[in-house]
Each structure stands twice: as structure tokens, then as C-alpha cells.
Amino acid sequence: MEKFLYLTLNILTISYPLIRSFEHRIQYASKWYALFPAIAFSGLIFIVWDHWFTVIGVWEFNPRYITGIYFFELPIEEWLFFLTVPFACIFIYEVLNYFIKKDILGKIAKPLTFVLIAAFLIIGLMNLDKWYTSVNFLVATLTLSIHFILFQDKYLGRFYLAYLVSLIPFFLVNGILTGSFIEEPVVIYNNVENLGIRLFTIPIEDTVYSMTLLLMTLTVYERIRITKTISKVTSL
After folding, report:
1. For residues 212 and 140, is the Cβ–Cβ distance under 8 A?
2. Burial class (CB in 10 A: 0-12, 13-18, 19+), 194
3. What is the pLDDT of residues 49-92, one digit of tens each?
4. What is the pLDDT of residue 235?
5. How far apart are alpha carbons 3 and 182 in whole angstroms?
6. What is the distance between the alpha carbons of residues 159 and 68, in angstroms, rounded to a whole number?
7. pTM for this one?
8. How far apart are CA 175 and CA 171, in angstroms?
9. CA contacts within 13 A on the Cβ side of 52
10. pLDDT tens digits for 196-230?
11. Is residue 220 classed exposed, middle or buried when 0-12, 13-18 and 19+ CB atoms within 10 A define those classes?
12. CB within 8 A of 14, min separation 6: which ones?
């Protein structure tokens, strides 16, 4: 049964958001027209990135915990990861938007974004000899910059709140993937290619990787929704 561990984590990640998608308050299913294209966009970029890093040995997957079904040298579970995680994270974003009307992080969103862009850029450039660190932080820099150019700080406060809340399941799921609570990690990292700093068993780069995945998905998601709203208004 341990071969189904990664698959089970994917199922558990998406199960509750999927079940609650038709709940009358959040009405998450009504937003799928924007969600799935956004997931497809970010998923394509991250799959290419993931495949590249797997090929060059930045990380590998433990055959003990996966079914053994591969597409383009990536286990099927890894493909599913880029569906289930953004699906669940945008669900968290929408739930928080519904229940917390005030943008409680709105005032600090803009300066925080400038600090993060500068910090990520510096860290990325200072670690060009480490593939995961450099690419991860530089892609995060680019993603934050593009989002800010498109939307300024309109969504950033709510994004940061959703991201902070998403860290709760992140530490559980990613903790298991990196070896917490189990005998061996599901994803095995080449520590030569990262900073070697771990939060429990999780490489610190993973927290930025997760942030980028969520923000990239959110950027496309909100862009599609805005476009639809504008289209409706102009057609009246």
C-alpha cells in the first residue's frame, strides 16, 4: 500500500475543496471557467520546470511511494500535484475572501512585495551555482513583478493571507513528501543544488516554490475573471 502514498496525498489534498465546490456560499464550481485555464497555465510551466530538474538530477522520486506510472519521466502523482495543490490553494483564497471581508494585509502588501522582489532577486543571483535556489528565487521575482505590473496591489493582500493559511496544509503534505513521519522521503533532493536549509524536513526553497505556484495561478485566474466582467459590461 505504500506505493499509493503520493497518490493518496493528492486525493486528500483535493477531496475537501472538490466536495465543497458546490456549496451555496462560496460557489467555487461557478469559478472553474477561470480556475482550470489558470491551473493549466501554471501547470504547464511547472511541469516543464519539474521535468528539467528531474533530468539534471536536482531531485528524484522514491519508487517506494509511487505507483510507477510515468509520463515524460515524471510520475503520474507529480502531474496530479500541479492540479490538486493549486485547486486547493485557490479554494482557500476564495473561502478567506468570503469570510474575511476586510483586506487585513492590504496596507503592507505593496511594501512587502517590493522587499520580497529585492530579496528574492539577490538570493537568486548570489546562488547561481545552485539550480534549485537560483531558478526558484528568480522565477518568484519574475512572477511577483509581473503580477504587480498587471494588478498593482489589488489582490496582493488577500494573496499573502491565503498563502500564509496554505502553509498549514503545506507543512503537513510537503513534510510527508520530504520524509516527515515516514522512513524515507518521497521526493529526494540533491542538496548540492539548494541552500541546505530545512524547515523540519522541507527545503526552504519549497516555501518559495509554493508561493510562486499559487501566485502564478492566481494571476491568470483573476485576469480571466476581470476579462469576463469587462466583456459583460461592454456587451450591455
Report:
1. yes
2. buried
3. 999 999 999 999 999 999 999 999 999 999 999 999 999 999 99
4. 67
5. 13
6. 35
7. 0.95
8. 5
9. 10
10. 999 999 999 999 999 999 999 999 999 999 998 88
11. buried
12. 83, 84, 87, 88
C-alpha cell read off for 132: 534549485
Q: Which residue, chain included where needed, has cell 513534510? A: 175
Nearest Cα neighbor of 57 from 178, 187, 203 is 187
Task: Using the structure block, give the residue that is written with the C-alpha cell 459583460.
Answer: 232
**Cβ within 8 Å of residue 155, ≥6 positions away:** 147, 218, 222
208, 140 contact by CB (below 8 A): yes
Domain boundaries, the chain: 2-235
Q: Which of 139, 161, 127, 162 is nearest to 209 (CA)?
A: 139
**Grid cell 488577500 — which residue?**
158
39: cell is 491551473
Give backbone dihedrals phi and psi of 198, rounded to 5 degrees, phi first.
Answer: -115, 140
3-state class (DSSP) for residue 104: coil
| Cα gap 121→116, rounded to integer Å | 8
Q: Which three cell numbers stand for residue 230?
A: 469587462
Helix axes 76-99, 5-19, angle to 10 degrees: 30
